[in-house]
Amino acid sequence: MQLFDIHSHTLPKIDDGSNSWDETMAMVRQAHETGTTDVAITHHMIRRSDYDKENEIIEKFAALKEHLEKNDIPLNLHLGAELYYSPDLELTHKISTYNNNGRYFLVEFPMQGIPRYCDDKFFEFIVDGKNPILAHPERNLGIIRNPMRAYDFVQKGVLLQMNAGSLTGMYGETVRQAALQLLDARLIHFVGSDGHNNTKRPLVIRDAYDIIIQRCGETYATKIFQEFPWNAMSGNEITIDEPMPISMTPEKAQSKSKFLKLLGF
Length: 265
Ligand SMILES: [Fe+2]
Known about the structure:
The chain is an alpha/beta fold. It is 42% helix and 14% strand. The protein is built from ten helices and seven strands. The protein has helices spanning 21-33, 54-70, 118-127, 141-145, 148-155, 164-168, 173-184, 206-216, 218-234, 250-262; strands at residues 4-5, 38-45, 76-84, 104-108, 131-135, 159-163, 190-192. A seven-stranded parallel sheet has the order 1-2-3-4-5-6-7. Strand 1 (4-5), helix 1 and strand 2 form a beta-alpha-beta unit. The model has no long low-confidence stretch (mean pLDDT 94). Bound molecules: fe (ii) ion. Fe (ii) ion (FE2) binds next to loops.
């Protein structure tokens, strides 16, 4: 089975990710050795001036592909960006959408909350056939405080990407609990390492895969680690399961049905 990591900062000296080619190569080795088959490279695009590095990113991306081949590391690479949300967000650059497919793009909110009117902005994209993938919602304070906002986004056509480290406790217990809550409601559609280096924020999703297989089963794991990302990289349609409202997660739904059985329903 293919294991897709759709969020990473792997190329050297672009943003706060990898610092050198040595570090980049250590990262991709780590990814391959832990079972990842596909990595999407998604450097931060926060200010307009960040796009000045677009050509450098495209060149380094091609160079990394060559390094992988020379070093016999069978890892497929995809190119996109992590777009910082703003009301005038546009998808006019080659790296704006994954593999320049004109459709799926990764977007992040500020950690402190959910920007005003972003629902309207996302709606404009969606009616225009463009699909936002929201990066690490489980780390966003607005969603942690009110997880139903995640459900609302998904209902409106936004897809959600979880960070692997959120499940392993890398960002603390509050984020881990939020991640589990979203996962249990089947509101997560992709997993990314958000890998920045080969030490504290590695290019690894394997631990999250093991947790998700255990907790949610193989069918769902196959969708979010293989089927959905494959379609997102190729620009194909993604059909998700109907999301469950947060209050009706499997454990709660199960205990409710036990309760109804006890009552003789
Ligand atoms: Fe990131």
